[in-house]
Design brief:
alpha/beta; 5-stranded parallel beta sheet; 4-stranded mixed beta sheet; 9 helices; 22% strand
């Protein structure tokens, strides 16, 4: 019996040796070649501007360049989506390794503005994950209706921040300014504070918009007083655009607004974020809180999708994302890899809700927000995802300007709340003589 066992054991050893000779490994499995490192760039936005000062000339540009910070090279592919899809046939990428310059070039026409996603494959390695590169339109765009729209990206090396970058809160004075840095940052995107007519968006230095931003600073920034504050001024849509926007009518209102913001507020906030990251938090050494309210929540939602592919290290350092006053759905969570919060102590999650009052009907149209069947909300009083009501006695209070005179006061145990079972919004149960918060999403719930 021993000789039989030895005989079969010898056959097994012989088979292993043959497999090793044929496949090059003792296990018979080919060695995993690994994945090509992802390309990186400090600045991922460039403007279609050939220096001529002529829109028509710049608009026909076929090629733009970016400077990379990585040394990876190989076969480059250009996509119009961050994952999946097929490489574009009409846009190519070429890399000049000694100069670290990567050129995006259109075949047989001008290079369209927008965000492109580039991968590279080196040798026998697998294709890398993609780097997002944004081609901004020429700063001044004439339109068929005779208007001239200014798309000039705001310069964030200048005085274009609500409070000086890296400001900290001083409890003694109740104000923001320079001081000992905190161990965490907050990148906050303002809600709509521009109410002008005419042009559909403000400039970043619009006086009315900046005055309104001061009220937001006083009413909302205090929530994040444990962090260094970074809050850019940016080109904003006015409130009427949210009701009147009708472009691409086959899309949902949310999608139409998002599309319209791509080359306006989002470009500014991309530029602000890159300036913040490169100047104050290189390599995302400090953790980051992302926050936005209303229009700011829409832009923060878009910005986080872009950060995943432009600066993924900054997403890895996310403490939480507070997107208040705009809808978040599971599709967005899947696209960004950011899970929705399930409790008060979660980190690395998105916290979001839309506030409405109890008078809202189940099928009523809310002009400020786009309620969707799979919209996600969490009740910020009891941190429940279901319709379990929270009583006003459970709330820490609300910070409100009930008299609408610019003065915010704290109202202890102001309201209870529950999540509407079909609209997916948070319903506030207070009654203050017809004062209507439906859709405004002032953070009444704390």
């Amino acid at each position: 019996m021993k000789r039989v066992r030895f005989f079969f054991g010898s056959i097994a050893l012989l088979m292993i040796a043959i497999m090793a000779l044929g496949c090059g490994t003792a296990s018979g499995a080919a060695a995993d070649p690994g994945t090509t490192p992802r390309a990186t760039a400090d600045w991922t936005i460039t403007v279609k501007d050939d220096g001529s000062g002529d829109y028509n000339s710049a608009d026909t540009m076929r090629s733009v360049g970016f400077t990379l910070t990585s040394d990876v090279d190989g076969i480059w592919k250009v996509y119009d989506v961050p994952e999946g899809g097929s490489p574009l046939r009409w846009v190519t990428a070429a890399y000049d390794a000694p100069a670290k310059k990567l050129a995006l070039t259109a075949k047989g026409g001008s290079l369209s503005s927008g965000t492109y996603y580039l991968s590279v494959t080196s040798g026998n390695l697998r294709e890398s994950t993609r780097l997002a590169l944004t081609v901004a339109p020429y700063p001044v765009i004439p339109s068929p209706n005779g208007r001239t729209y200014n798309f000039q990206i705001t310069n964030y090396a200048g005085d274009n921040w609500v409070v000086p970058p890296q400001s900290v809160y001083d409890d003694s004075s109740g104000s923001w300014g320079k001081g000992e840095a905190k161990p965490v940052d907050c990148f906050y995107i303002l809600p709509t504070t521009y109410g002008g007519s005419g042009y559909e968006w403000s400039s970043a230095d619009d006086a009315q918009m900046r005055t309104g931003a001061g009220r937001i600073r006083d009413s909302q920034f205090g929530i994040f007083r444990g962090a260094n504050m970074f809050a850019p001024f940016y080109k904003q849509f006015n409130l009427t655009i949210f009701n009147s926007i009708g472009w691409y009518s086959e899309l949902t209102k949310n999608d139409r607004i998002s599309l319209a913001m791509e080359n306006v507020g989002l470009l500014d906030n991309k530029a602000a974020f890159e300036y913040y990251l490169n100047t104050y938090n290189p390599g995302a050494e400090r953790p980051i809180i992302y926050a936005g309210h209303s229009q700011g929540a829409i832009l923060q939602r878009l910005l986080l999708k872009w950060i995943k592919y432009a600066h993924p290290e900054a997403l890895d350092k996310m403490v939480a994302a507070y997107l208040i006053g705009h809808v978040v759905d599971q599709k967005w969570c899947d696209e960004t890899g950011i899970p929705f919060a399930t409790g008060a102590t979660d980190t690395g999650v998105v916290i979001s809700y839309n506030t409405e009052d109890e008078d809202i009907g189940e099928t009523d149209v809310n002009s400020f927000i786009d309620t969707i069947p799979d919209g996600l909300s969490i009740n910020p009083i009891n941190w429940r995802r279901d319709s379990t009501p929270a009583q006003a006695s459970e709330s820490q209070g609300s910070f409100l300007d009930l008299d609408r005179n610019g003065v915010f006061n704290k109202y202890p145990r102001f309201t209870g709340a529950y999540i509407h079972p079909t609209r997916g919004t948070v319903i506030a149960t207070f009654d203050v003589g017809g004062y209507d918060y439906a859709g405004n999403d002032v953070p009444v719930l704390t």
